[in-house]
Amino acid sequence: MAELLWQVADRLVKALMPKFSIVTVSYNAEKTIEDTIHSVQMQEGVELEHILIDGGSRDGTMAIVDRYQNKFAAIISERDKGIYDAMNKGAALAKGEFIGFLNADDYFASSNSLALLASALEKSDAAWGNVLQVDDEGVPKRLISGEWFKPSRMTLGLMPPHPSFYVRTSRVRAVGGFDHSYKIAGDFDLVRRLFRISGFTSCYVSELITIMRVGGVSTDGLTATRTSSAEILRSLTTNGEKIKPFCLNFRYLLRVVELIRGRLLSLSGQRFKPNADAE
């Protein structure tokens, strides 16, 4: 009898929990934050909560956020130790069964982006799709497909496209969240530790999930590329992998393919501007 009551109580708690926690990290993002907020509000077919962690913006970011206060489960604006420290703050507040990170210059590709992932997550710990990098006019620049990823390929420096990656919140907490000593590859390091969990399950969804503007911390030039490679190598060796650094060069060949795919999309005339019709 006690066991039955426990099961009923557990189901009730899960029914009351939001399915998704979406964490948005921002800093001086007044030009893009409203697009991000709108794209979250427009998600259909899922229960969600939106958490904003701002690094103490000095522009008009928080004035915009204040107009949508009732749309957020939590808002924090204070100085932090970097993007991954901010993400950890958001993860600590999350009440959803699954968590993902939609930064202040990103937006969902459609109103059913999360619904597409929700189906896959019914039987998985994590799911991801595809991400498209665009310029400020919505012109495609690089199509990052999640189809290339397999856990065994992390030794090549590959990972699921992080802006489309949603994972069971309890799993993120089990591995201790992000290591904020990383500057660029903290997402790679977290995913690496997640996939080392015994019995961890995952699924790729062959759909465009997230639009990512060019110019974020991980897309900004040669210096970022060098830092990223060094940090990926550090993560792999810290987690017990024995690899040769030249293996990471495969990432650059894949990036060429992704840029070509983005160029083809651009030539087709397709544009991916955010939908600003949300209330």
Question: Can you characterise this structure?
Answer:
The chain is an alpha/beta fold. Helix 7 packs parallel to helix 8 (221-238). The longest helix has 18 residues, at 221-238. It contains 9 helices and 9 strands. Helix 2 (33-41) links the parallel strand 1 and strand 2 (48-54). The protein has helices at 2-16, 33-41, 61-66, 83-93, 113-121, 169-174, 186-194, 221-238, 250-267; strands spanning 20-26, 48-54, 74-77, 98-101, 106-108, 126-134, 140-144, 166-168, 202-213. Strands 1, 2, 3, 4, 5, 6, 7, 8 and 9 form a 9-stranded mixed sheet that branches. The mean pLDDT is 90. The N and C termini lie far apart (47 Å).
- How many E strands? 9
Secondary-structure-based class equals: alpha/beta
- Alpha carbon gyration radius: 19 Å
Strand proportion, as a percent range, falls in 15-25%
Task: Note poorly predicted spans.
Answer: none
Helix content: 25-40%
N-to-C SSE string, H for helix and E for strand: HEHEHEHEEHEEEHHEHH
Distance between the termini: 47 Å
Total number of helical segments? 9
Shape from CA axes?
globular
**Main sheet: strands, sense, barrel:** 9 strands, mixed
Mean pLDDT equals: 90
